[in-house]
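Backbone shape codes:
***
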Amino acid sequence: MGVGLNHLYNDPAQARADYRAIAAHIAAVQRPGDAVLLNAANQWEVFTYYHRETGDNAPVYPIPRARPVDTAATRAELDAILAAHDRLFVLYWGDAESDPARVVESYLSERAAVIETTWYQDVRLVTYIDWTGATDAADALPAVRFHAPEGDIHLTGHTVRALGLPSRPGDALAVTLRWEAETRLSVRYKVFVHLVDPDGAIVAQHDSEPAADLRPTDTWQPGETVTDNHGLQIPSGAAPGAYRVYVGLYPLDDPATRLPVTVGGEGAGDYLALATVEVE
């Protein structure tokens, strides 16, 4: 019996996700307008126990609410949640059972932007901001091409949205990119989005495959438009000034090799400056 209990309590492979740490993190950064989503029914008791313990008052929604998932009802509830909340903390666990079609994650990839992803053992905590009601802050660009060996990837449109203009430390930015490939791509590329301060230092970034990893580049059809949302958090200690938003692409297995960029037929290095955001 002692050997069995020792294995249970001390073997890292048997460790359960640290919901106390998850709840504490959310409580530390929570602001009015935030909410928490739990994608698996078994999370409710353990998360809400620690959530109450922290004194955090962000509402908690279990979604999807039924198995099999009712897609229409789930998307309708998510519509209502996003209408009421600007930022969401979503705890993904046991996705293959709770939401095998990834209805919740697919919806949020369309309507919200990921700011941060953190793993707590087998629980993935993803922070989203709702960009649908935010204010545009994008610069106009001529034709943009990222030159991959198999064929060019076009950036056909983009928007940088701020939850407030001018922005302030702690505010969030949502970057929407629209991509199109000339040919079928066999290589998977990741997108990086950087927020760079007036001195040229990267102060926030988000890297992922397109559409929150749901639309890898090797699944694109030639001429298809792929919408890709990314989120950035302006650091709480950010100094006032003009901040730039940069974007680029690199192979999934080779982050050091960025694709070269041309803008209006002219070489632009290995990243693109999308927009300027003023921070007060």
Notes: DSSP finds six helices and 16 strands in the chain. The first strand starts at residue 34 and ends at 38. Residues 196 and 202 are 4 Å apart (CA to CA).
